[in-house]
Amino acid sequence: RLDLSKNQLGPLAVKRLAASPHLAGLTVLNLSDNPFGDAGAVELAKAPWLKNLAGLDLSHCDITARGAFALAEALAPQHLVRADLNSARVTVSYETQKALAAKFGPAVYI
User: Fold this and answer.
1) For position 77, what pLDDT does the model report?
2) Mean pLDDT of 36-44
3) Looking at the DSSP assignment, which residues form a beta bridge with residue 108?
4) Which of 14, 56, 59, 60 reaches 20 to 30 Å from 97, CA-CA?
5) Model pLDDT for residues 83-103, shown as the tens digit of each residue
6) What mean pLDDT is predicted for residues 73-87?
7) How far is 27 from 40, CA to CA, in rounded Å?
């Protein structure tokens, strides 16, 4: 479990985090309340260890459909128990919510 919430992490910090070989065994990641937006979400989606996560909190990270879809492609539905993409600042479209629900069922909270 790694909690880096409320650290003002931007896209570059998330890119470096995603490239870390030390996170291969990580199962829960909390990056909530960081302003990295879609650029950071796209970088996070490149992390080879992302598919192993059971829990991912990206609430209030300014992620839109672009970032959500990048993450949906990278996450493994067989492992994921909960992914929180809720944001008071960004509204994810109904189409995006529907697509995520189709892949992950109730594991994704928007």
Assistant:
1) 81
2) 96
3) 83
4) 14
5) 887 774 556 677 777 777 887
6) 82
7) 19
Q: C-alpha distances in angstroms, 66 versus 13, 24, 41, 76? A: 19, 25, 9, 18
Please tell me the distance from the alpha carbon of residue 96 to that of residue 102, in angstroms, as a whole number: 10
Query: Rounded to whole angstroms, how far apart are CA atoms 78 and 67?
Result: 20
Contact (Cβ atoms closer than 8 angstroms) between residue 44 and residue 71: yes
What whole-number distance in Å separates Cα of residue 35 and Cα of residue 20? 20
15 class by beta-carbon count within 10 Å (0-12 exposed, 13-18 middle, 19+ buried): middle
The pLDDT confidence band at residue 64, using thresholds 50, 70 and 90, is confident
Output the DSSP codes for 54-105. Answer: SEEE-TTS---HHHHHHHHHHS-TTT-SEEE---SS-PPPHHHHHHHHHHHG
